[in-house]
């Protein structure tokens, strides 16, 4: 019947119109910075790279996309990822070096962030990669050394006036650097970093605008003394062992101080720890669970709030005359 033929023609036309509409690459019509922002939500670099197969325009977007975190297992087959720490990259090593070199070469116009996980076999390339990142005026720098061999950080990193956040994890060694100048640095996180008392003081002296300081398991430090940093707001000291004797924080703008639990299985008795915190600090939290030990904790007289989480630890607490809220919580 005529009406059936007419209906079928309209249906076919509708399907064709829908297909044509679906063929339109609306993503490619977006501004480049919007495209990059959308791609940044894709969790895997491999999946981002696969978008380059869609069309020539998507290929151009991929080539201009800034990769900011370089992890060796990005190029490994799923079956080899779990063995990476023991076996390394193996046959994929050269491919990964080429991958990083190419990504950094595409970032000449600027790099907001550079994060890198490196093991022993990739360490020889790290100086060159850091140099390229610094040439791009990287704002956020994160280095994770997954190796028993220490890596001496280049002095140039500690004199980069444009770096705003610096995170060093693993066997990163900071030593023998005579001058530190990080005038833009706002955040400094050191995890298992090899740095002694003298170099730590020199490092902080070159960070006048520091706002956030975090130290975790830095075994060479026997004292943590923070000079008069006017902009410092948050300090966290974690994973501390018996070698830490003094924690002294001088910062008129300090808002938060956290001292987290250390090693639970250290058999050392009568360990004294003196904690001096700026008088304006709003809140202090100390968490410690080492058994059979004693901690001497001294607070500034104007500290308003203090929480101590403890498990079978004897605390001798002094100088709390003006403290408004004082709480001791027993850890299970």
Mind explaining what this structure looks like?
Helix 7 packs parallel to helix 8 (123-135). It contains 9 helices and 18 strands. It is α/β, with parallel strands linked by helices and 332 residues long. 24% of the residues are buried. The chain is 27% helix and 25% strand. The protein folds into 3 domains: 1-64, no CATH class; 66-221, Leucine-rich repeat, LRR (right-handed beta-alpha superhelix); 245-332, no CATH class. The chain is globular. The strands form 4 sheets. It has an 11-stranded parallel beta sheet, with helices on one face. A 3-stranded parallel beta sheet has the order 9-11-13. Strands 4-6 form a two-stranded parallel sheet. The longest helix has 22 residues, at 2-23.
> What is the CATH top level name of the largest domain?
Alpha Beta
**Into how many domains do the coordinates divide?**
3
Helix content: 25-40%
Distance between the ends: 82 Å
Question: Strand pairing plus helix content: what structural class?
Answer: alpha/beta
Number of strands: 18
Radius of gyration: 27 Å
- Arithmetic mean pLDDT: 71
Which consecutive residue ranges, at least 5 long each, have pLDDT under 50?
A: 15-22, 263-271, 289-296, 314-323
Largest sheet: 11 strands, parallel
Order of strands across the widest beta sheet? 1-2-3-5-7-8-10-12-14-16-18
H/E series = HHHHEHHHEHEEEEEHEEEEEEEEEEE
